[in-house]
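User: Can you help me understand a structure? I only have the sequence.
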Amino acid sequence: MGATARHARFGDATPMTATRQAAPGTLAALVLASLFACGGFLGSSSADPGVPGPAPLIAVSVSPSTASTTAGGSVTFRADVTGTTPGQSTAVTWSVREAGGGSIGRATGVYSAPAAPGTFTVVATSVADGSRTGTATVTVAARAATVRDQLAAMAKKRWFFAHMSVGSEICGDYDPTGGRFTAPFGLAKLLADNAGSGLSVVRTTSAVEIPTGTFGNAQLNDAPLTGVNGDPASKMAAFQAAMAGGLGNSVDLAFVKLGFVDQAMLFADRSTRPAPGLSFKQYQDVMTALQAAYPRTRFLHTTVSHSEAGAAYNNDQADNWNQMLRATYPASEIFDVAWWDSHGAGGDLATATANDGLAHPALHPDWAQADGGHLNQAGADMLARKLVEFLGTLQ
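Assistant: Let's start by predicting it. Here is the structure, written out as tokens:
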């Protein structure tokens, strides 16, 4: 039998001549092509259209993201919900994170601020997914007190204000024009415009007639008081007599006002002046003694009112006195009549050259009566408002 063909076996070193061994590079290319064709190559970005992708995350945003209001005010917030799937709710429920931080309509987003100021967080929670929230920050500022608020605050106490004619104008019971003011004016007008505030004004020196909620006041020459214009020493003695007569430790707060007619007898020094003169040290000694004798009454201070430029009175001694008073007592204890009566409605300062040859603050023409020292009706109304602002916000 002739030569027979040899069959190649695995591992034979010599394959049969009809078969060639594939080159290594060719085999690798075949494997890669097969993997790509099957879509199974690792790292492939191809997605199987039959397998759903991950659900989108729900997100909640709140607008405005920051807001501000005053105590008792309100702000309306809006929430936008994204990432929901068909059939899921896009609604939110509203809440305030901090206890005492106000309230908000659970469905409306209308925020109502608390009475106390602070910074609070409004939260919108997705109805579809309670773990998804959005927030906003709201700053609540203290509400500016109204005249009615200030009068109501005053109505919680008992007051006594000793004065002369300008003080009576402020209180609303003296018209220096003899009838040309339109009643009511001054403090009486504020009470009429804010009926129900709880405060009443009574001209008296009797403690019995000054219960809580009463602003008692009197001129320093109302019987039995014997104060005299141009004699500040007698006025301080009259104020002491009023306190000793039953007002001391009965009223909660008391103060006395010296006027433009007293300027020549006021001395901003620490000497001892014979009557009718009054040094600042003598004034201070009287007020210190009163506070010690009547600890349940808080004693306040007022600056001395001005006269107008060209009037018979000069403002140099009053200005020096006022500066010393401001330097001695805290501003929270001073009703600064002199500051207010020298600044006009537009805030400009009136000045006049006085006996010392220097310019000093003077009664502003916006507030001056024709006599150059008393207030016109606008001045009486203005100082009454400033008095209420001062007393109604005392701490």
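Now, to help you interpret it: The chain has two domains: 59-141, 147-391. Confidence is low (pLDDT under 50) at residues 1-46. Let me know which part you'd like to focus on.
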